[in-house]
Amino acid sequence: MASISHSPVTFAGTSASDLLRSSSNGVRGVPLKALGRARLGARRKDFSVSAKIRKVKKHDHPWPQDPDPNVKGGVLTHLSSFKPLKEKPKPVTLEFEKPLVALERKIIDVRKMANETGLDFSDQIISLENKYQQALKDLYTHLTPIQRVNIARHPNRPTFLDHVFSITDKFVELHGDRAGYDDPAVVTGIGTIDGKRYMFMGHQKGRNTKENIQRNFGMPTPHGYRKALRMMYYADHHGFPIITFIDTPGAFADLKSEELGQGEAIAHNLRTMFGLKVPIVSIVIGEGGSGGALAIGCANKLLMLENAVFYVASPEACAAILWKSAKASPKAAEKLRITASELCRLQIADGIIPEPLGGAHADPSWTSQHIKNAINEAMDVPHLEQELLKMDTQELLKHRMLKFRKVGGFQEGLPVDPKKKVNMKKKEEPIVGRTQHADLEGEVEKVKQQILKAKESSSEPPLLRLNETIEKLRKEVDHGFSEAAKALGFEDKFAALREEFLKVNSEEQLIDPAFKNKIDKLRNEFNQNLPKAPNYESLKSKLDMLKELSKAKNLAEKNQKAALLKQEINQRFKEIMERQDVKEKFGALKTEIQSSGASKFGDLDSNLREKIVKLKKELEFEFADVLQSLGLEVDVMKSNATQLEELIPPSEVKAKIKELNKEIQEGIENVVSSSDLKYKIELLKLETSKAGKKPDLASKKKIAALEQQIKQSLVAALDSSNLKEKHEKLKAEISESIGSFGGLDGSLKTENPDEGRVKINVGANRC
Fold first, then answer.
1. Averaged pLDDT, 684-695
2. Which of 17, 334, 494, 742 lies at a 20 to 30 A Cα distance from 244?
3. Residue 383: is its pLDDT beyond 80?
4. Residue ranges in 306-380 assigned as alpha helix (H)
5. Section 570-591 average pLDDT
6. Residue 161: which of 184, 177, 195 has the closest Cα?
7. H helix or E strand, kind and range, residue 272
8. Average pLDDT estimate for 639-650
C-alpha cells in the first residue's frame, strides 16, 4: 500500500517525472526512503511516501499435493466448500427394512451379553449374522419399484461430489455462469481419472438439512443449467470428454426461475448437447426427474446405478393425477417402468452399475469404484460398437442422435425383428392385488359376525362372502409359502422337484416310491425350517384364519346338504304314503281293526297282526329303496330285536365294539404307515399299473408275492399286539350273554328270519 501527502504548491527544482523515476528506480533517481523534508519555496511542507508489501503464500499450480491434511488425493478445498462431514450421518431405516432391525438388535444384545459375562457366544453371533445377511440378500434381490425409489431418495446416499472425489486423481471445481450467479445445485469441474482429463458436471444434493437448504435440495435454477452449458462449450473447445451425474427430483419450478427462463435454459442445453463433438456419458446416481435431469443427460451412453430411478413424473405426482391420491404411488411406480432394469429392457439406459446390499450408502467407496470402472469401460473398452474415444466427430454425433431416435420407435403392421424381441418384456399375467394383513383380519371378523347372526336367527350363513374371503386367504397363504421358500433357499429345490414331477407325469406313470419318499423328505425339511422364515408369524396367522373359515364352510355346506336331503326324504316319504294303493291298504286295515273292537295290539287276532306286520315290512322296504336311491346306507338287520334288547344292554355292547374297532383301525394304520410296508404298497400299485388289464405271468407272480408279503406283515403286526386277545374276550362275553339265543361263535340266530328292523345311516354322504 502507498500513501502520498502533497501540497498544491509547485516543487522547486523537481519535476513530476523525476519523482516517478525515483519511485520506480532507486538507483538513477532519488529513493523513496531518501526523500525527506524539502524546501518548497517560502513555505515548508512535509512530504512522505510509504509502501507495504503483503506476503502471499506461494502455491503449486494447478494442483498441490495435499492442500488439506484430512483429505488425501489432491482435493482443492480452497476452491470448493465441500468438505468431509465432521459428524457421521445418523442411520435411517426405511419402512421395508424394519424386519431387519430386530435381527440387528438381537446381534447387539448377544455381543453385549458376551462382553458383560465373558462367555463365548461366537457361534450364536455367527449364526445370527449369517441369518441377517441372508435376510438382507433376500430383501434386496426382490425389491419393488417404489422401494427402489425410496432407496434412491435415501438421506445418506452418496452425492455427486462424494463420488467425484473418490474416483478422480485430481479435481478442481469451476464456478459461475458468467451472468452474475453461481447455482450451488449444479457443480462443474475438471478432473482426471487414471491420467485422463474429463469435464465433470452434476446435480449436488446436501448431506444434511443445512447443506440441502444451501444446495436447494438438488433442484437447479436456470443459472445452474447455464453454468453447465458454459462448461460444455469449454469442454468441447478443449476436447475434454464430458461425464454428467444425474441426481435431482426436477428443475426448481418457482416463479423467479420461470421469469429467468427455466424452460429456455433446459431447451438450450438439449439442443447444444446433441451438437457437442466430444463423447458424453451420463450416470444416474439417484433420482432422474423429468427435464431437470434430461438437461444434462443427452449422452452417448446412459448408465444407472442399480437402485436409481429415471422418470418423467414422480410416482406421487403420477398417482395424484391418475388415481387422485398419492397413496397409489406404489402402483404408479410399477406402471411407469422407472427402474434401471426396466429402462435397460426398453433400451433407454445402456447399462446397470451394481450397488452393495443395503444400497449405495452401505458402502460408498465400493459404489464409486464400480462407477469408475463403468466410465473407463464406456470410454475405452470395445463393445459391439466402436468405443467412444476412438469415434470421429460424425460417428459420435450420429451415435448420439440414433440413441434417442430409437427410443419409443414402433411401427404398426410390420413383423418385429427376432433380434429386437430379445430385449422386449414378455407378456405378464395380470397382477392380482395383494390384500393387507390388517384388512384380511377385519374381513374375517366380519364374516364370523355374519355366521353368528345366521346361527342366532336360524338362517343360512353367507356362503358367497365366506367363499370370497377363503379365496383371498388361499392366495395370500400361497404367496406367503412362496416368499418363505425364497427366504429359506428352497425355491430352487422345489423348482427342480416340480420339473421332475412333470416329467414323470407326462409319461403317464404312477409316482415311483423312491420319488415319493423324496417329496415327503423335502416337505418335512421345509416344514421344520418354516418357523425360521421372516414371514412365519403372518403366514401362521393367515393359515389359522383359513382353517377356521374352511371348517365353518364345511359345516355350513353339510348343514345345507342335510337340510336339502331331509326335505327330499320327507317329500319322497309323503309321495309313498299318499299313493293310492297304500291308502287303500291302510283304509282296509283300519276298517278291520275298528270292526274287531280291540283297543291294544295284543288283543288283535293272529291273522290281523300278521297283516299289520306285513304292511309295515312292505313300507320299510320301500322306504329303504328310497334312501338307497338318495345315496344313503341302509342296513337290514335280521334279528329278534325284542328278546335281544331284553338280554343285552345295547349301549355297553356298542361301546365295547366301537372301542375295539377303533383300536384295530389304529393298529392297522400304524402298521401301514411304517416305511417298509408303505414302500411295498407303493411297489404293488406301481406293478399293478405297469401290468395293465392283461398282466403276463411274471407280473402276476410279482403282484401275488407282494400281496402275500403285505398280508403276512399285517397279520404279524396284529398278532404281536393284544388286539386278538381283546377280540376273543369280547366275543366270549357276547356269547355268554346271548347263550340261549346265539351260537358259540356269537352269531345271532332268529326263530323267524323274516322278522327284522331297518337301520338307516342318515349321516352318510351321498354318492
1. 74
2. 334
3. no
4. 315-322, 329-336, 340-345, 364-380
5. 81
6. 184
7. helix 262-273
8. 43
Residue 583 Cα to chain centre, angstroms: 72
C-alpha–C-alpha distance, residues 236 and 234, integer Å: 5
Mean per-residue pLDDT, 18-25 = 40
- Please return the burial class of 290, using the count of CB atoms within 10 Å of its CB with bins 0-12, 13-18 and 19+: buried
- The answer to whether 330 and 307 have CB atoms below 8 angstroms apart is no
Lowest mean pLDDT across 80-94, 308-322, 726-740: 726-740
Coil, strand or helix at 718: helix
Cell of 760: 338307516
End-to-end CA distance of the chain: 116
Find cell 415319493 and name the residue: 516
Lowest mean pLDDT among 35-44, 146-155, 379-388: 35-44
C-beta neighbour count of 399 within 10 angstroms:
16
Distance CA 37, CA 46 (A): 6
Alpha-carbon span 718 to 724, nearest angstrom: 7
d(CA 269, CA 281): 15
Could you please report the per-residue DSSP string of 675-704? Answer: HHHHHHHHHHHHHHHHH-SS--HHHHHHHH
How far apart (Å, rounded) are the C-alpha atoms in residues 597 and 680? 72
* Residue 410 vs residues 234, 364, 414, 633: alpha-carbon distances, Å: 37, 40, 9, 69
Residues 262 and 185: their CA atoms lie apart, in Å, by: 14
Give the chain's length: 767
Give me the residues paired with residue 581 across strands: none
**Within 10 Å of residue 519's Cβ, how many Cβ atoms?**
13
Is there a contact between 50 and 3 (Cβ–Cβ < 8 Å)? yes
Residue 388, C-alpha cell as written in the block: 467412444
Burial 369-394 (b: 16+ CB within 10 A, else e): ebbbebbebbbeeeeeeeebeebeee
Rounded CA gap, 57 and 583, in Å?
131
Residue linked to cell 410279482: 702
